[in-house]
Amino acid sequence: MKSTGSYPRVHVDTAKVTAVGQAGGILLTETIRAAGLDLALSEAMSRWRRPLAIHDPGKIICDLAVSLVLGGEALSDLATLRAEPGVYGPVASDPTVSRLIATLAEDAEAPLIA
After folding, report:
1. What is the pLDDT of residues 13-52, one digit of tens each?
2. How far apart are the C-alpha atoms of 84 and 107, rounded to whole Å?
């Protein structure tokens, strides 16, 4: 099965809601998809994916970047993305993100090269 990207596709909603709270996040995820960054990071980080893992390390790194751009200051700020699964897709839990960061920190040169 071919992957089409890490984030859900944007769609038009005709609900009578005047707020567009996630517009910046949507623009960023569409830019990530258009540039191919999500798939490239997924491929580059594949060696750190555990055999039975649900969350892709490349997607977790993309989610962290999106969270930072939207004003996040800590790993736990991913809760902002987690609260909008229709926009950001499945987002890893805080413990999963912490384990990935700890694993990557064990040999910091390897992830930087990847």
Report:
1. 666 654 455 677 888 898 999 999 999 999 999 999 988 8
2. 33
C-alpha to C-alpha distance for 96 and 88, rounded to whole angstroms: 17
The token pair that represents 10 in the structure block = 């944007």
Which two three-digit tokens encode residue 51? 């055999």
The sign of the dihedral angle between the CA atoms of 15, 19, 22, 28 is positive
CB atoms under 10 Å from CB of 89, counted, come to 16
Could you give the angle at the alpha carbon of 86 between the alpha carbons of 104 and 13, nearest 5°? 150
64 close to 78: Cβ distance less than 8 angstroms: yes
Residue 17's φ and ψ, nearest 5 degrees, are -120, 130
Backbone angles phi, psi at 89, to 5 degrees: 70, -170
The rounded mean pLDDT for the chain is: 84
Q: How far apart are CA 24 and CA 13, in angstroms?
A: 17
Query: What is the rounded CA–CA span in Å between residue 99 and residue 95?
Result: 6
